[in-house]
């Protein structure tokens, strides 16, 4: 008979090789998922990108869904960090413009992660809706209250805080999700992110100026 009072054993920590292989699989999966989308990606593609056999990959992750979920879980935390940094005690214009710049920098530094997130949303967010309706919504609601407070105090212009945040997401993530189009239209010799920074600063400064 099992002793129901006995606590379950904690999983053994991974060895150095296991940690390395896990990281290799996640890196390979990020490349495949961001290129092919969840539906188009296969375990064979991920294993080949990782330089591992498929059985070896399945030792670490039991399914394609498990790998995808592991990536999305990490991505959600990364994606929320710039908004968390919006400080209610700071200067409103500085805080909002800093948030815009951080989001633009994330699009430059993490284009594959941005495309992974976009693909998940386009499919109806079947694997991360709980996070969107939970942590993401809670954080956005809190920052909306901060922005409303700044507007009520006359520190920034009256704007719809939700749509302000949506516009920042759309404008900054466009440079990651549509990178090929942006670079093709601009032509050679242009750095979209360097050029976008000044434009976006001006746009939001004029929009938010009291």
Strand coverage percent: under 5%
Task: Return Rg in Å.
Answer: 21 Å
CATH topology of the largest domain: Tetracycline Repressor, domain 2
| Number of structural domains | 2
What's the CATH superfamily of the largest domain, by name?
Tetracycline Repressor, domain 2
Strand-pairing-aware structural class: mainly alpha
Sheet with the most strands, sense and barrel status: none
Number of separate strands: 0
Q: Number of helical runs?
A: 10
- Please mark out the parts with pLDDT under 50 across 5 or more consecutive residues, or reply none: 1-10
Helix content: over 70%
N-end to C-end Cα span:
71 Å
The average pLDDT score comes to 90
CATH architecture of the largest domain: Orthogonal Bundle
| Main CATH class of the largest domain | Mainly Alpha
The shape is globular
- State the order of secondary-structure elements, H for helix, E for strand: HHHHHHHHHH
């Amino acid at each position: 008979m099992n002793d129901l009072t006995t606590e379950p054993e904690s999983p053994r920590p991974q060895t150095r090789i296991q940690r390395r292989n896990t990281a290799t699989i996640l890196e390979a999966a990020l490349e495949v998922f961001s290129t092919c989308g969840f539906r188009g990606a296969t375990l064979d593609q991920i294993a080949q990108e990782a330089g591992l056999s498929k059985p070896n990959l399945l030792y670490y992750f039991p399914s394609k869904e498990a790998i995808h979920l592991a990536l999305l879980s990490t991505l959600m935390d990364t994606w929320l960090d710039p908004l968390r940094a919006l400080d209610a005690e700071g200067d409103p214009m500085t805080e909002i413009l800093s948030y815009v710049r951080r989001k633009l920098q994330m699009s430059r530094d993490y284009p594959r992660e941005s495309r992974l997130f976009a693909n998940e949303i386009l499919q109806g967010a079947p694997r991360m809706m709980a996070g969107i309706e939970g942590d993401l919504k809670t954080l956005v609601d809190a920052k909306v209250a901060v922005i409303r407070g700044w507007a009520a105090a006359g520190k920034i212009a009256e704007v719809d805080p939700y749509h302000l945040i949506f516009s920042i997401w759309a404008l900054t993530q466009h440079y990651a999700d549509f990178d090929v189009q942006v670079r093709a239209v601009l032509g050679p010799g242009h750095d979209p992110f360097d050029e976008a920074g000044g434009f976006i600063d001006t746009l939001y400064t004029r929009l938010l100026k009291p």
